[in-house]
Amino acid sequence: MTNAMPKRQEIDVQLTWDTDILFPTPDNYKENLAAYAKQVTAFESNYKGKLTDKDTIVSALTEYEKIVILDSRLSHYAFLPLEVDKMNTELASLANEYDLVSAKARPQRDFLYSELGQLDEAFLLELKEEQPQWAAFFDAILRDKSHQLHPLQEELLSNFAPTFGQPYNNYGVTKFEDMTFENFEANGQTLDNSYVLFENDYELSHDTEIRRNSAAGFYSTLKKYKNTTAATYLSHIKNEQIEARLRGFDNTIDFLLHRQNVSRDLFDRQIDVIMKELAPHMRRYVKLVAKAHGLDKITHADLKISLPSEYNQRITPEESKQFLIDCLGILGEDYVKMIEQSFDERWIDFAQNEGKATGGFCATLYDGPSYILLSWTGLMNEVLVLAHELGHAGHFQLAKKQSVLSYDPSLYFIEAPSTANEVLTCNTLLKNNQDPGFQAYLISELISRTYFHNMVTHLLEAAFQREVYTRLDNEEYLNGDILCQIKLDVIKEFWGEDFEIGDDAGLIWMRQPHYYIGLYPYTYSAGLTIGTAMAKQLEENPEEVVEKWLETLSLGASLSAQDLAKHAGVDVSTDQPLKETIAYVGSLVDKLESLI
Protein backbone atom coordinates (compact mmCIF):
# COMPACT_ATOMS: atom_id res chain seq x y z
CA MET A 1 0.00 0.00 0.00
CA THR A 2 1.30 3.51 -0.77
CA ASN A 3 0.43 7.11 -0.11
CA ALA A 4 -0.86 6.61 3.44
CA MET A 5 -1.69 9.85 5.24
CA PRO A 6 0.67 10.68 8.15
CA LYS A 7 -0.54 11.45 11.65
CA ARG A 8 -0.49 15.10 12.71
CA GLN A 9 2.36 14.56 15.17
CA GLU A 10 4.51 13.18 12.34
CA ILE A 11 4.36 16.44 10.36
CA ASP A 12 7.35 18.81 10.11
CA VAL A 13 6.44 21.79 12.32
CA GLN A 14 7.58 24.20 9.59
CA LEU A 15 4.66 23.02 7.47
CA THR A 16 2.16 23.86 10.21
CA TRP A 17 0.60 27.08 11.44
CA ASP A 18 1.58 28.58 14.78
CA THR A 19 -1.47 29.21 16.96
CA ASP A 20 0.76 29.84 19.98
CA ILE A 21 0.88 33.40 18.64
CA LEU A 22 -2.61 33.76 20.12
CA PHE A 23 -1.95 32.28 23.55
CA PRO A 24 1.42 30.78 24.54
CA THR A 25 -0.10 27.86 26.48
CA PRO A 26 -3.48 26.16 26.99
CA ASP A 27 -3.43 27.42 30.58
CA ASN A 28 -3.06 31.00 29.37
CA TYR A 29 -6.00 30.41 27.02
CA LYS A 30 -8.11 29.11 29.91
CA GLU A 31 -7.23 32.14 32.02
CA ASN A 32 -8.35 34.46 29.24
CA LEU A 33 -11.50 32.41 28.68
CA ALA A 34 -12.42 32.85 32.35
CA ALA A 35 -11.66 36.58 32.10
CA TYR A 36 -13.87 36.80 29.02
CA ALA A 37 -16.78 35.21 30.89
CA LYS A 38 -16.44 37.80 33.67
CA GLN A 39 -16.11 40.62 31.14
CA VAL A 40 -19.35 39.63 29.40
CA THR A 41 -21.22 39.26 32.70
CA ALA A 42 -20.08 42.76 33.70
CA PHE A 43 -21.12 44.10 30.30
CA GLU A 44 -24.63 42.75 30.76
CA SER A 45 -24.85 44.14 34.28
CA ASN A 46 -23.61 47.57 33.24
CA TYR A 47 -25.64 48.09 30.08
CA LYS A 48 -28.67 45.82 29.75
CA GLY A 49 -31.84 47.89 29.89
CA LYS A 50 -29.81 51.11 29.99
CA LEU A 51 -29.12 51.88 26.32
CA THR A 52 -31.26 55.01 26.21
CA ASP A 53 -28.79 57.91 25.91
CA LYS A 54 -25.90 58.58 23.56
CA ASP A 55 -23.12 58.58 26.15
CA THR A 56 -24.16 55.19 27.51
CA ILE A 57 -24.45 53.73 24.00
CA VAL A 58 -20.99 55.00 23.03
CA SER A 59 -19.55 53.55 26.24
CA ALA A 60 -21.31 50.23 25.60
CA LEU A 61 -20.07 49.98 22.01
CA THR A 62 -16.51 50.79 23.07
CA GLU A 63 -16.64 47.96 25.61
CA TYR A 64 -18.40 45.68 23.14
CA GLU A 65 -15.55 46.08 20.65
CA LYS A 66 -13.12 44.75 23.27
CA ILE A 67 -15.41 41.78 23.92
CA VAL A 68 -15.68 40.93 20.22
CA ILE A 69 -11.91 41.11 19.71
CA LEU A 70 -11.14 38.86 22.69
CA ASP A 71 -13.88 36.42 21.69
CA SER A 72 -12.36 36.13 18.21
CA ARG A 73 -8.92 35.35 19.65
CA LEU A 74 -10.38 32.72 21.99
CA SER A 75 -12.52 31.04 19.33
CA HIS A 76 -9.66 30.84 16.84
CA TYR A 77 -7.35 29.33 19.44
CA ALA A 78 -10.04 26.83 20.34
CA PHE A 79 -10.99 25.70 16.85
CA LEU A 80 -8.07 26.19 14.45
CA PRO A 81 -5.99 23.36 15.98
CA LEU A 82 -9.02 21.10 15.75
CA GLU A 83 -9.40 21.89 12.03
CA VAL A 84 -6.06 20.21 11.36
CA ASP A 85 -6.41 17.32 13.83
CA LYS A 86 -10.08 16.47 14.23
CA MET A 87 -9.53 13.17 16.03
CA ASN A 88 -7.51 14.78 18.84
CA THR A 89 -9.61 14.54 22.01
CA GLU A 90 -7.46 17.02 23.95
CA LEU A 91 -8.09 19.67 21.30
CA ALA A 92 -11.77 18.76 21.24
CA SER A 93 -11.88 19.30 25.00
CA LEU A 94 -10.35 22.78 24.64
CA ALA A 95 -12.91 23.65 21.97
CA ASN A 96 -15.71 22.34 24.17
CA GLU A 97 -14.62 24.64 27.00
CA TYR A 98 -14.99 27.58 24.64
CA ASP A 99 -18.40 26.33 23.47
CA LEU A 100 -19.70 26.14 27.03
CA VAL A 101 -18.58 29.68 27.87
CA SER A 102 -19.75 31.06 24.52
CA ALA A 103 -23.22 29.53 24.85
CA LYS A 104 -23.75 31.40 28.11
CA ALA A 105 -22.05 34.59 26.92
CA ARG A 106 -23.96 35.00 23.67
CA PRO A 107 -27.29 36.20 25.15
CA GLN A 108 -25.36 38.26 27.72
CA ARG A 109 -23.92 40.35 24.89
CA ASP A 110 -26.48 40.05 22.09
CA PHE A 111 -29.05 42.16 23.94
CA LEU A 112 -27.10 45.10 22.52
CA TYR A 113 -28.57 44.52 19.04
CA SER A 114 -32.17 44.06 20.14
CA GLU A 115 -32.14 47.06 22.47
CA LEU A 116 -30.57 49.35 19.87
CA GLY A 117 -33.10 48.09 17.34
CA GLN A 118 -35.93 49.26 19.59
CA LEU A 119 -34.70 52.86 19.53
CA ASP A 120 -36.19 55.57 17.35
CA GLU A 121 -34.85 55.66 13.80
CA ALA A 122 -34.05 59.38 13.90
CA PHE A 123 -32.07 58.87 17.10
CA LEU A 124 -30.05 56.06 15.50
CA LEU A 125 -29.36 58.22 12.46
CA GLU A 126 -28.01 60.94 14.75
CA LEU A 127 -25.72 58.41 16.41
CA LYS A 128 -24.54 57.22 13.00
CA GLU A 129 -23.65 60.77 11.98
CA GLU A 130 -21.92 61.57 15.27
CA GLN A 131 -20.00 58.27 15.45
CA PRO A 132 -18.84 57.60 11.86
CA GLN A 133 -16.52 54.78 12.94
CA TRP A 134 -19.68 52.74 13.61
CA ALA A 135 -21.71 53.93 10.61
CA ALA A 136 -21.91 50.47 9.02
CA PHE A 137 -22.93 48.97 12.37
CA PHE A 138 -25.79 51.45 12.74
CA ASP A 139 -26.78 50.88 9.10
CA ALA A 140 -27.18 47.17 9.87
CA ILE A 141 -29.28 47.94 12.96
CA LEU A 142 -31.52 50.23 10.90
CA ARG A 143 -31.80 47.70 8.07
CA ASP A 144 -32.89 44.98 10.50
CA LYS A 145 -35.41 47.09 12.46
CA SER A 146 -38.48 45.97 10.52
CA HIS A 147 -37.53 42.31 10.99
CA GLN A 148 -36.60 42.52 14.65
CA LEU A 149 -38.50 40.53 17.25
CA HIS A 150 -39.42 41.48 20.79
CA PRO A 151 -36.26 41.60 22.98
CA LEU A 152 -37.37 38.52 24.92
CA GLN A 153 -37.82 36.57 21.68
CA GLU A 154 -34.40 37.73 20.49
CA GLU A 155 -32.92 36.54 23.78
CA LEU A 156 -34.55 33.14 23.38
CA LEU A 157 -33.15 32.79 19.85
CA SER A 158 -29.73 33.79 21.10
CA ASN A 159 -29.88 31.10 23.79
CA PHE A 160 -30.73 28.51 21.14
CA ALA A 161 -27.83 29.56 18.85
CA PRO A 162 -25.61 26.58 19.81
CA THR A 163 -28.46 24.24 18.88
CA PHE A 164 -28.93 25.99 15.55
CA GLY A 165 -25.26 25.36 14.81
CA GLN A 166 -25.50 21.67 15.59
CA PRO A 167 -26.30 20.47 12.03
CA TYR A 168 -22.95 21.81 10.84
CA ASN A 169 -21.21 20.08 13.73
CA ASN A 170 -23.02 16.84 12.89
CA TYR A 171 -21.96 17.17 9.25
CA GLY A 172 -18.34 17.43 10.38
CA VAL A 173 -18.65 14.38 12.63
CA THR A 174 -20.06 12.31 9.78
CA LYS A 175 -17.43 13.53 7.33
CA PHE A 176 -14.32 13.36 9.47
CA GLU A 177 -15.05 10.80 12.19
CA ASP A 178 -17.50 8.27 10.76
CA MET A 179 -16.50 8.07 7.10
CA THR A 180 -13.69 5.70 6.21
CA PHE A 181 -12.68 5.07 2.62
CA GLU A 182 -11.67 1.74 1.14
CA ASN A 183 -8.35 1.43 -0.66
CA PHE A 184 -8.52 1.22 -4.44
CA GLU A 185 -6.48 -0.42 -7.18
CA ALA A 186 -4.83 1.51 -9.99
CA ASN A 187 -1.95 0.57 -12.27
CA GLY A 188 -1.22 -2.53 -10.22
CA GLN A 189 -0.94 -0.59 -6.97
CA THR A 190 -3.15 -0.40 -3.90
CA LEU A 191 -3.70 3.21 -2.87
CA ASP A 192 -5.24 4.84 0.18
CA ASN A 193 -8.25 7.08 -0.31
CA SER A 194 -9.58 9.92 1.83
CA TYR A 195 -11.35 13.25 1.47
CA VAL A 196 -8.06 15.15 1.35
CA LEU A 197 -6.33 12.73 -1.03
CA PHE A 198 -9.29 12.62 -3.38
CA GLU A 199 -10.12 16.32 -3.49
CA ASN A 200 -6.55 17.62 -3.55
CA ASP A 201 -4.81 14.99 -5.64
CA TYR A 202 -6.69 12.09 -7.24
CA GLU A 203 -9.57 14.16 -8.64
CA LEU A 204 -7.03 16.31 -10.49
CA SER A 205 -4.69 13.48 -11.48
CA HIS A 206 -3.70 13.13 -15.12
CA ASP A 207 -3.63 9.36 -14.62
CA THR A 208 -7.06 8.25 -15.82
CA GLU A 209 -7.06 4.96 -13.92
CA ILE A 210 -6.23 6.68 -10.62
CA ARG A 211 -8.75 9.44 -11.26
CA ARG A 212 -11.69 7.22 -12.20
CA ASN A 213 -11.04 4.39 -9.75
CA SER A 214 -10.55 6.76 -6.83
CA ALA A 215 -13.82 8.51 -7.74
CA ALA A 216 -15.71 5.22 -7.83
CA GLY A 217 -14.45 4.31 -4.37
CA PHE A 218 -14.95 7.79 -2.97
CA TYR A 219 -18.59 8.03 -4.01
CA SER A 220 -19.37 4.48 -2.91
CA THR A 221 -18.48 5.60 0.62
CA LEU A 222 -20.45 8.85 0.37
CA LYS A 223 -23.50 6.89 -0.75
CA LYS A 224 -23.56 4.96 2.55
CA TYR A 225 -24.01 8.24 4.45
CA LYS A 226 -26.46 9.85 2.02
CA ASN A 227 -29.53 9.72 4.25
CA THR A 228 -27.73 10.82 7.41
CA THR A 229 -26.15 13.76 5.59
CA ALA A 230 -29.49 14.67 3.99
CA ALA A 231 -31.24 14.70 7.36
CA THR A 232 -28.47 16.90 8.75
CA TYR A 233 -28.65 19.36 5.87
CA LEU A 234 -32.44 19.54 5.85
CA SER A 235 -32.52 20.18 9.60
CA HIS A 236 -30.18 23.12 9.05
CA ILE A 237 -32.50 24.56 6.42
CA LYS A 238 -35.48 24.03 8.72
CA ASN A 239 -33.77 26.28 11.28
CA GLU A 240 -33.32 28.95 8.61
CA GLN A 241 -36.93 28.61 7.48
CA ILE A 242 -38.28 29.06 11.00
CA GLU A 243 -36.21 32.18 11.60
CA ALA A 244 -37.15 33.60 8.19
CA ARG A 245 -40.83 33.13 8.97
CA LEU A 246 -40.50 34.59 12.48
CA ARG A 247 -38.79 37.68 11.07
CA GLY A 248 -41.47 38.24 8.46
CA PHE A 249 -39.68 37.30 5.24
CA ASP A 250 -41.66 35.91 2.30
CA ASN A 251 -39.18 33.08 1.77
CA THR A 252 -35.91 31.72 3.08
CA ILE A 253 -33.78 32.94 0.18
CA ASP A 254 -34.87 36.54 0.78
CA PHE A 255 -34.00 36.15 4.47
CA LEU A 256 -30.51 34.86 3.66
CA LEU A 257 -29.89 37.55 1.04
CA HIS A 258 -31.01 40.20 3.54
CA ARG A 259 -28.09 39.12 5.72
CA GLN A 260 -25.79 39.91 2.79
CA ASN A 261 -27.58 43.18 1.95
CA VAL A 262 -28.04 41.87 -1.58
CA SER A 263 -31.17 41.94 -3.74
CA ARG A 264 -32.70 38.78 -5.20
CA ASP A 265 -32.06 39.86 -8.78
CA LEU A 266 -28.27 39.84 -8.24
CA PHE A 267 -28.47 36.29 -6.87
CA ASP A 268 -30.65 34.99 -9.71
CA ARG A 269 -28.61 36.78 -12.36
CA GLN A 270 -25.39 34.99 -11.40
CA ILE A 271 -27.05 31.59 -11.67
CA ASP A 272 -29.17 32.16 -14.77
CA VAL A 273 -26.57 33.93 -16.91
CA ILE A 274 -23.73 31.54 -16.07
CA MET A 275 -25.85 28.41 -16.58
CA LYS A 276 -26.78 29.65 -20.05
CA GLU A 277 -23.74 31.56 -21.32
CA LEU A 278 -20.68 30.07 -19.61
CA ALA A 279 -21.67 26.45 -20.19
CA PRO A 280 -20.83 26.40 -23.95
CA HIS A 281 -17.30 27.73 -23.30
CA MET A 282 -16.66 25.19 -20.53
CA ARG A 283 -17.96 22.29 -22.64
CA ARG A 284 -15.60 23.32 -25.42
CA TYR A 285 -12.70 23.60 -22.98
CA VAL A 286 -13.23 20.18 -21.39
CA LYS A 287 -13.46 18.54 -24.81
CA LEU A 288 -10.11 20.12 -25.75
CA VAL A 289 -8.47 18.79 -22.60
CA ALA A 290 -10.03 15.35 -23.00
CA LYS A 291 -8.75 15.13 -26.58
CA ALA A 292 -5.25 16.09 -25.44
CA HIS A 293 -5.38 13.28 -22.86
CA GLY A 294 -6.67 10.81 -25.45
CA LEU A 295 -9.75 9.95 -23.39
CA ASP A 296 -12.19 7.46 -24.88
CA LYS A 297 -15.08 9.26 -23.20
CA ILE A 298 -15.64 12.15 -20.79
CA THR A 299 -17.12 11.17 -17.45
CA HIS A 300 -17.78 13.37 -14.47
CA ALA A 301 -14.51 12.12 -12.98
CA ASP A 302 -12.64 13.73 -15.90
CA LEU A 303 -14.05 17.25 -15.75
CA LYS A 304 -11.49 18.89 -13.45
CA ILE A 305 -8.24 17.81 -15.10
CA SER A 306 -6.01 20.33 -16.80
CA LEU A 307 -4.01 20.06 -20.00
CA PRO A 308 -1.11 17.56 -20.00
CA SER A 309 2.13 19.53 -20.01
CA GLU A 310 5.85 19.21 -19.40
CA TYR A 311 5.52 22.40 -17.34
CA ASN A 312 3.32 20.66 -14.77
CA GLN A 313 6.08 20.46 -12.15
CA ARG A 314 5.72 20.30 -8.36
CA ILE A 315 6.46 23.50 -6.42
CA THR A 316 7.59 23.53 -2.79
CA PRO A 317 5.97 25.85 -0.22
CA GLU A 318 9.19 27.86 0.00
CA GLU A 319 9.36 28.22 -3.79
CA SER A 320 5.75 29.40 -3.84
CA LYS A 321 6.65 32.29 -1.54
CA GLN A 322 8.93 34.03 -4.05
CA PHE A 323 6.66 32.94 -6.87
CA LEU A 324 3.68 34.79 -5.37
CA ILE A 325 5.71 37.80 -4.30
CA ASP A 326 6.81 38.20 -7.91
CA CYS A 327 3.25 37.85 -9.23
CA LEU A 328 1.47 39.98 -6.62
CA GLY A 329 4.22 42.53 -6.09
CA ILE A 330 2.24 44.97 -8.20
CA LEU A 331 0.01 45.45 -5.13
CA GLY A 332 2.77 47.28 -3.31
CA GLU A 333 5.43 47.00 -0.64
CA ASP A 334 3.04 46.58 2.29
CA TYR A 335 1.19 43.79 0.51
CA VAL A 336 4.47 41.98 -0.16
CA LYS A 337 5.39 42.36 3.52
CA MET A 338 2.09 40.70 4.43
CA ILE A 339 2.93 37.74 2.16
CA GLU A 340 6.41 37.45 3.68
CA GLN A 341 4.96 37.66 7.18
CA SER A 342 2.45 34.89 6.45
CA PHE A 343 5.32 32.53 5.59
CA ASP A 344 7.91 33.72 8.11
CA GLU A 345 5.53 33.74 11.10
CA ARG A 346 3.83 30.48 10.09
CA TRP A 347 0.32 31.70 9.39
CA ILE A 348 -0.07 28.91 6.79
CA ASP A 349 -0.76 25.23 7.42
CA PHE A 350 0.59 23.36 4.38
CA ALA A 351 0.48 19.82 5.79
CA GLN A 352 -1.46 16.85 4.48
CA ASN A 353 -2.34 14.67 7.45
CA GLU A 354 -4.98 12.35 8.75
CA GLY A 355 -7.91 14.13 10.40
CA LYS A 356 -7.36 17.48 8.69
CA ALA A 357 -10.25 19.49 7.26
CA THR A 358 -10.63 19.48 3.49
CA GLY A 359 -10.37 22.42 1.12
CA GLY A 360 -8.82 25.73 2.07
CA PHE A 361 -9.75 28.80 4.05
CA CYS A 362 -8.37 31.97 5.59
CA ALA A 363 -9.37 33.02 9.11
CA THR A 364 -8.21 36.49 10.18
CA LEU A 365 -8.10 37.84 13.72
CA TYR A 366 -8.85 41.53 14.04
CA ASP A 367 -5.83 41.89 16.33
CA GLY A 368 -3.67 39.15 14.90
CA PRO A 369 -2.65 36.88 12.01
CA SER A 370 -4.56 35.60 9.01
CA TYR A 371 -4.43 31.82 9.34
CA ILE A 372 -4.55 29.89 6.06
CA LEU A 373 -5.43 26.21 5.77
CA LEU A 374 -4.23 24.23 2.74
CA SER A 375 -3.33 20.63 1.97
CA TRP A 376 -0.27 21.31 -0.16
CA THR A 377 0.21 19.21 -3.27
CA GLY A 378 2.75 21.43 -5.01
CA LEU A 379 0.66 21.61 -8.17
CA MET A 380 -0.06 24.94 -9.85
CA ASN A 381 -3.65 24.43 -8.73
CA GLU A 382 -2.49 24.66 -5.11
CA VAL A 383 -0.37 27.74 -5.81
CA LEU A 384 -3.51 29.46 -7.07
CA VAL A 385 -5.38 28.35 -3.96
CA LEU A 386 -2.66 29.99 -1.87
CA ALA A 387 -2.87 33.16 -3.96
CA HIS A 388 -6.62 33.07 -3.35
CA GLU A 389 -6.31 32.70 0.43
CA LEU A 390 -3.63 35.39 0.59
CA GLY A 391 -6.18 37.61 -1.14
CA HIS A 392 -8.48 37.10 1.83
CA ALA A 393 -5.58 37.74 4.19
CA GLY A 394 -4.61 40.98 2.48
CA HIS A 395 -8.23 42.11 2.42
CA PHE A 396 -8.87 41.62 6.12
CA GLN A 397 -5.49 42.92 7.22
CA LEU A 398 -6.31 46.13 5.34
CA ALA A 399 -9.89 46.23 6.64
CA LYS A 400 -8.53 46.59 10.18
CA LYS A 401 -8.57 50.32 9.49
CA GLN A 402 -12.28 50.03 10.31
CA SER A 403 -13.86 49.30 13.67
CA VAL A 404 -14.25 45.60 14.40
CA LEU A 405 -18.00 46.31 14.23
CA SER A 406 -17.68 47.68 10.67
CA TYR A 407 -15.06 45.25 9.45
CA ASP A 408 -16.66 42.27 7.73
CA PRO A 409 -18.14 43.09 4.28
CA SER A 410 -21.02 41.37 2.54
CA LEU A 411 -20.40 37.84 1.29
CA TYR A 412 -21.20 39.13 -2.19
CA PHE A 413 -17.88 41.01 -2.21
CA ILE A 414 -15.85 38.70 0.01
CA GLU A 415 -14.44 36.56 -2.83
CA ALA A 416 -13.42 39.50 -5.04
CA PRO A 417 -9.94 40.12 -3.54
CA SER A 418 -9.16 36.40 -3.44
CA THR A 419 -10.17 35.62 -7.00
CA ALA A 420 -8.52 38.81 -8.27
CA ASN A 421 -5.25 37.43 -6.89
CA GLU A 422 -5.70 34.19 -8.83
CA VAL A 423 -6.29 36.01 -12.12
CA LEU A 424 -3.51 38.50 -11.42
CA THR A 425 -1.05 35.68 -10.70
CA CYS A 426 -1.80 33.95 -13.98
CA ASN A 427 -1.88 37.16 -16.01
CA THR A 428 1.57 38.11 -14.69
CA LEU A 429 2.99 34.71 -15.58
CA LEU A 430 1.43 34.78 -19.05
CA LYS A 431 2.87 38.23 -19.66
CA ASN A 432 6.37 37.18 -18.59
CA ASN A 433 6.63 33.91 -20.52
CA GLN A 434 5.55 33.83 -24.15
CA ASP A 435 6.53 30.20 -24.78
CA PRO A 436 3.48 28.57 -26.47
CA GLY A 437 3.74 25.42 -24.37
CA PHE A 438 3.84 27.40 -21.14
CA GLN A 439 1.01 29.64 -22.30
CA ALA A 440 -1.19 26.63 -23.03
CA TYR A 441 -0.32 25.05 -19.68
CA LEU A 442 -1.09 28.17 -17.66
CA ILE A 443 -4.29 29.04 -19.49
CA SER A 444 -5.51 25.54 -18.78
CA GLU A 445 -4.61 25.90 -15.09
CA LEU A 446 -6.40 29.26 -14.94
CA ILE A 447 -9.56 27.83 -16.45
CA SER A 448 -9.54 24.51 -14.59
CA ARG A 449 -8.76 26.03 -11.19
CA THR A 450 -9.97 29.63 -11.05
CA TYR A 451 -12.93 29.69 -13.42
CA PHE A 452 -14.02 26.08 -13.03
CA HIS A 453 -13.87 26.17 -9.24
CA ASN A 454 -15.53 29.54 -8.73
CA MET A 455 -17.91 29.77 -11.69
CA VAL A 456 -18.78 26.11 -12.26
CA THR A 457 -18.33 24.05 -9.09
CA HIS A 458 -19.66 26.71 -6.72
CA LEU A 459 -22.20 28.03 -9.21
CA LEU A 460 -23.74 24.58 -9.66
CA GLU A 461 -23.91 24.42 -5.87
CA ALA A 462 -25.81 27.70 -5.93
CA ALA A 463 -28.26 26.40 -8.54
CA PHE A 464 -28.77 23.32 -6.37
CA GLN A 465 -29.37 25.48 -3.30
CA ARG A 466 -31.92 27.65 -5.07
CA GLU A 467 -33.94 24.62 -6.10
CA VAL A 468 -33.75 23.05 -2.63
CA TYR A 469 -34.87 26.21 -0.82
CA THR A 470 -37.64 26.83 -3.33
CA ARG A 471 -39.04 23.32 -2.97
CA LEU A 472 -38.91 23.40 0.81
CA ASP A 473 -40.59 26.81 0.96
CA ASN A 474 -43.30 25.30 -1.26
CA GLU A 475 -43.66 22.57 1.39
CA GLU A 476 -42.40 19.79 -0.87
CA TYR A 477 -40.90 16.64 0.64
CA LEU A 478 -37.15 16.12 0.23
CA ASN A 479 -34.82 13.28 1.22
CA GLY A 480 -31.38 11.99 0.25
CA ASP A 481 -32.51 10.49 -3.05
CA ILE A 482 -34.34 13.65 -4.09
CA LEU A 483 -31.38 15.85 -3.19
CA CYS A 484 -29.17 13.62 -5.34
CA GLN A 485 -31.59 13.90 -8.25
CA ILE A 486 -31.72 17.70 -7.94
CA LYS A 487 -27.92 17.86 -8.00
CA LEU A 488 -27.70 15.45 -10.92
CA ASP A 489 -30.23 17.46 -12.94
CA VAL A 490 -28.32 20.70 -12.34
CA ILE A 491 -25.02 19.12 -13.43
CA LYS A 492 -26.55 17.58 -16.56
CA GLU A 493 -28.20 20.86 -17.50
CA PHE A 494 -24.85 22.63 -17.43
CA TRP A 495 -22.78 19.98 -19.22
CA GLY A 496 -25.32 18.83 -21.80
CA GLU A 497 -25.58 15.50 -23.58
CA ASP A 498 -21.98 14.95 -24.76
CA PHE A 499 -20.68 13.98 -21.32
CA GLU A 500 -21.28 10.77 -19.37
CA ILE A 501 -22.63 12.07 -16.09
CA GLY A 502 -23.31 9.00 -13.95
CA ASP A 503 -25.59 8.77 -10.95
CA ASP A 504 -22.64 9.13 -8.56
CA ALA A 505 -22.39 12.79 -9.58
CA GLY A 506 -25.64 13.35 -7.72
CA LEU A 507 -23.78 12.73 -4.45
CA ILE A 508 -21.53 15.75 -4.92
CA TRP A 509 -23.80 17.95 -2.79
CA MET A 510 -22.57 15.95 0.23
CA ARG A 511 -19.06 17.38 -0.14
CA GLN A 512 -19.80 21.05 0.49
CA PRO A 513 -19.72 22.55 4.01
CA HIS A 514 -20.64 25.97 2.60
CA TYR A 515 -24.29 24.91 2.55
CA TYR A 516 -24.24 25.52 6.30
CA ILE A 517 -23.25 29.19 5.81
CA GLY A 518 -26.40 30.29 4.00
CA LEU A 519 -26.13 31.37 0.37
CA TYR A 520 -22.34 31.33 0.17
CA PRO A 521 -21.65 29.35 -3.05
CA TYR A 522 -23.02 31.91 -5.55
CA THR A 523 -20.78 34.60 -4.08
CA TYR A 524 -17.68 32.93 -5.56
CA SER A 525 -18.88 33.71 -9.07
CA ALA A 526 -19.94 37.19 -7.97
CA GLY A 527 -16.52 37.78 -6.47
CA LEU A 528 -14.74 36.42 -9.54
CA THR A 529 -16.80 38.74 -11.74
CA ILE A 530 -15.42 41.68 -9.77
CA GLY A 531 -12.00 40.04 -9.45
CA THR A 532 -11.62 39.51 -13.20
CA ALA A 533 -12.46 43.14 -13.90
CA MET A 534 -10.02 44.32 -11.23
CA ALA A 535 -7.18 42.10 -12.46
CA LYS A 536 -7.65 43.55 -15.94
CA GLN A 537 -7.60 47.11 -14.60
CA LEU A 538 -4.55 46.42 -12.43
CA GLU A 539 -2.68 45.04 -15.42
CA GLU A 540 -3.64 47.87 -17.78
CA ASN A 541 -3.30 50.86 -15.45
CA PRO A 542 -1.46 49.90 -12.25
CA GLU A 543 -0.38 53.43 -11.31
CA GLU A 544 -3.97 54.58 -10.76
CA VAL A 545 -5.76 51.33 -9.97
CA VAL A 546 -3.55 49.78 -7.25
CA GLU A 547 -4.13 52.58 -4.76
CA LYS A 548 -7.87 52.61 -5.46
CA TRP A 549 -8.13 48.83 -5.06
CA LEU A 550 -6.23 48.77 -1.77
CA GLU A 551 -8.35 51.65 -0.53
CA THR A 552 -11.48 49.66 -1.40
CA LEU A 553 -10.20 46.67 0.56
CA SER A 554 -9.54 48.91 3.56
CA LEU A 555 -13.19 50.03 3.65
CA GLY A 556 -14.36 46.78 5.24
CA ALA A 557 -18.13 46.82 5.68
CA SER A 558 -18.41 50.61 5.53
CA LEU A 559 -20.04 50.30 2.09
CA SER A 560 -22.46 47.78 0.61
CA ALA A 561 -21.09 45.13 -1.73
CA GLN A 562 -22.36 47.01 -4.78
CA ASP A 563 -20.84 50.26 -3.56
CA LEU A 564 -17.52 48.58 -2.75
CA ALA A 565 -17.38 47.25 -6.31
CA LYS A 566 -18.34 50.67 -7.66
CA HIS A 567 -15.65 52.34 -5.54
CA ALA A 568 -13.12 50.01 -7.16
CA GLY A 569 -14.47 50.81 -10.62
CA VAL A 570 -16.81 47.87 -11.31
CA ASP A 571 -20.54 48.49 -11.77
CA VAL A 572 -22.40 45.31 -10.80
CA SER A 573 -25.80 46.99 -11.01
CA THR A 574 -25.83 45.72 -14.61
CA ASP A 575 -24.89 42.34 -16.06
CA GLN A 576 -22.05 43.82 -18.15
CA PRO A 577 -19.16 42.80 -15.83
CA LEU A 578 -20.52 39.25 -15.66
CA LYS A 579 -20.93 39.00 -19.41
CA GLU A 580 -17.44 40.43 -19.92
CA THR A 581 -16.03 37.83 -17.53
CA ILE A 582 -17.75 35.04 -19.45
CA ALA A 583 -16.46 36.49 -22.72
CA TYR A 584 -12.95 36.52 -21.22
CA VAL A 585 -13.24 32.81 -20.43
CA GLY A 586 -14.34 32.26 -24.02
CA SER A 587 -11.28 34.16 -25.26
CA LEU A 588 -9.04 31.96 -23.11
CA VAL A 589 -10.54 28.85 -24.70
CA ASP A 590 -10.05 30.41 -28.14
CA LYS A 591 -6.39 31.06 -27.39
CA LEU A 592 -5.94 27.55 -26.03
CA GLU A 593 -7.38 26.12 -29.26
CA SER A 594 -4.85 28.11 -31.27
CA LEU A 595 -1.96 26.96 -29.09
CA ILE A 596 -2.65 23.22 -29.19
From TrEMBL:
Record flagged with keyword NADP: no
GO biological process: proteolysis
Domain Oligopeptidase F N-terminal residue range list: 115-181
Keyword Acetylation in record: no
Annotated SUPFAM superfamilies: Metalloproteases ('zincins'), catalytic domain
UniProt enzyme class: hydrolase
CDD domains xrefs: M3B_PepF (cd09609)
Protein name as annotated: Oligoendopeptidase F
Segments forming domain Peptidase M3A/M3B catalytic: 205-582
Cofactor(s) needed: Zn(2+)
Pfam families per record: Peptidase_M3, Peptidase_M3_N
E.C. code: 3.4.24.-
Molecular function, one GO term: metal ion binding
Record's keyword terms, sorted: Hydrolase, Metal-binding, Metalloprotease, Protease, Zinc
UniProt-listed InterPro entries: M3B_PepF_4, OligopepF_N_dom, OligoPept_F_C, Pept_M3A_M3B_dom, Peptidase_M3B
